[in-house]
Amino acid sequence: MFFDDGRVLAMREMILADTEEGRRASLAKLLPMQRKDFTEIFEIMSGLPVTIRLLDPPFHEFLPKNPEEAERLAADLGIEIERFNDRLRALREYNPMLGHRGCRLLISHPEIVEMQVRAIFEAALIATRTTGVAIMPEIMVPLVATRAELEYIKVRIHETARAVMAESGKRFSYQIGTMIELPRACLLAREIAECAEFFSFGTNDLTQTTFGISRDDAAGFLASYDAKGILGYDPFTTLDRQGVGELVRIGVERGRQARPDIKVGICGEHGGNPPSIAFCEELNLDYVSCSPFRVPVARLAAAQATLAGRGSTRVA
């Protein structure tokens, strides 16, 4: 969504801006692009549930990977290369996947939240008009570890919703939920659920942060673990029931204690893995979400688990 040629330049411009004013100018370029994307999605889904995760990747994923690319980008943006490199150094992180990303990034730069949710709400109003069906977006906040993080971002979402309603003269409904992808969030799911209308367990990151294993580097040693009988499966393919699964179980139970009607599911590659789907049925999750090419397998696995009397998980 952000990596197309016309968008990635505006995204990079926003990232490299060192003032809020500069970031807002770049976000103003991204707003119509996001609004168009979301309008098309809402129109295609025509009233079916649509969950949109707010910006999650760390900034480094959008930045140049070598000096030649850096020089080209600096020229495109009209920035002196020395100043450009200074800004790159300031943004560099030692462990970006556990660094300034997800809700942490959104809290540091709430103007990103404002742009994205404005695009969502304006798109929902357009799609409601074109389809004749009331669109209710589901907005998901990533990488939450504390209730306070979610509450801070919720305030910004509500403020933007009120502004869009005032400007349009139209009222609309929406839901706010969160990714549960850190062990702390699982353990504190009861208090997080008090201000979330749905949970989506991000089992890719939850597996990384529970095992302390980088998903991108695991292939280098998991084969050896398998051969030596230490771990007979890939935990990034099949959900680890004893560790990661137990955290999911705790999170589901505690979340439902605080909010019995909370919608709960998982997203990630485990959502298309039959043994993992069977575990989701045991927890009576409401849905599993996976990449498109895994949907047929996920549907079949969910149906088999349902026929076995385990539940009625929906595939998204």
From TrEMBL:
Source domain of life: Bacteria
Annotated PEP-utilising enzyme C-terminal domain residues: 13-305
UniProt-listed Pfam families: PEP-utilizers_C
Keywords, in A-Z order: Kinase, Pyruvate, Transferase
Gene3D superfamilies tied to this protein: Phosphoenolpyruvate-binding domains
GO molecular function, one term: pyruvate, phosphate dikinase activity
Reported function: Catalyzes the reversible phosphorylation of pyruvate and phosphate.
Protein name (database record): Pyruvate, phosphate dikinase
Organism this protein belongs to: Methylobrevis pamukkalensis
Gene: ppdK_1
